[in-house]
Amino acid sequence: MSKNIERKNTVMADYLDRIGAGKVLLTKEPFSYDWTPPELVGRNAQLDELASMFMGIENHSVSCRAIITGNVGSGKTVLTHRFGIDLSSKLEGRRKIVLSHVNCRNHPSTSQVLQQIALSLDSRHPERGFSSGEIVQSIRRNLKAHDSHLLLVLDEVDILVRRDSSDLIYKLLRIDEGQDEWGSVSLILVSQDTTLFNLFERAIKSRLGGSAVLVLPPYDADELIGIAKQRYEVACRPGTVGEETLAKIGRFAAEAGGDARLAIELLETAVRRAEKAGRGDVLADDVRPSTRRAATIEPSQVHELSKHQKLVLLGICRRLKKAEEITSGDARKLYELVCEEHSSKPRGYTTFWKHMKHLAAEGLIESRTASSTQGRGRTQYVTMTNTAPAALESRIERDLLHA
Ligand SMILES: Nc1ncnc2c1ncn2[C@@H]1O[C@H](COP(=O)(O)OP(=O)(O)O)[C@@H](O)[C@H]1O
Ligand SMILES: [Mg+2]
After folding, report:
1. Residue 33 lies in a domain
2. Residue whose CA is at the smallest distance from ligand 1 atom 16
3. Whether residue 70 has its Cβ less than 6 Å from ligand 1
4. Domain boundary among 271, 288, 305
5. Is this structure's pTM higher than 0.85?
6. Structural domains in the chain (count)
């Protein structure tokens, strides 16, 4: 009896295996944002430079610092992931490294960042009622008790600094001050914003002073081809994506600013198109970058929007990078999140709707109304066919930063 069930389960599993595995695709995983490739394409020089900033890290008294900047898709996040993994395995047996990577876009407040660090240390959540200074010191005690060194990456750190000042960074930089000779925390600060340094108060600047800034240049077409090829080789059946297809992806992504994310997205949608058509080969014609039209939006069109119109649009862009369309209800929620990040109070519904109408009138978004399938009423769907959400997103972010 139980054997029968077991057999049934196996049959069931075989049949489920076919979901998502088509003529081209083997696994979708390499297309996801948090897949770290075993090797980075075209970043040897930058990894070398980062390594030189971490000279001496094998010694227990040493802590290091680095600042990494570069445009969206220049590989800042993946570089820090790769470096963290490589460093901790290199130091195995010599120094125990605990990795903590906090994306301040997702955890924008001081207490949220501290909570994320605590989670990486596998300790209890910091208890309520303690100051950030006290929590930082308890992190230090925890590290020392486990004879560990924390490599902390604060990614998109400008969001934390703009929201909560650089107080936490200051405390982390001083974590060992007045203590015995022992380095607790190495810090890598990551930001898209090259003026990040200006956000810091003088006391921080002088402490960071010695640490060099690593600027990641945009990728050129060949590097983008290499990046797309690397994903293709892991995600797809051999021989399904040809040179010509990869070349087109590389060319377009290079023209759009050297964004690796775009190259990967172009590959993914091209694969999807071929699969949908039932083909076993991905043609150059399957690569259809809607981003080509990004240029039709003038920078001034973004600049002339009011702050809250920008915030509404920013929320929409972020979601449309991953989805074809979103509901107006989601647009509202995303707007509220973006407001929180920018320490702005969200406007009421009436104003929000006015902003949505304005964005549509400007041709920045399109909306269609459909009768809702659930319950009564009609739902409005928002799409963006005139421009690439990712390109528009970075334009708005840059604009808000320099407002
Ligand atoms: N040199 C590289 N080699 C392989 N993949 C890369 C490289 N640079 C970036 N990627 C991939 O491109 C995408 C965007 O990179 P990411 O590190 O998120 O950029 P950023 O943080 O600068 O916006 C990720 O999926 C990442 O894995
Ligand atoms: Mg990043």
Report:
1. no
2. 75
3. yes
4. 288
5. no
6. 3
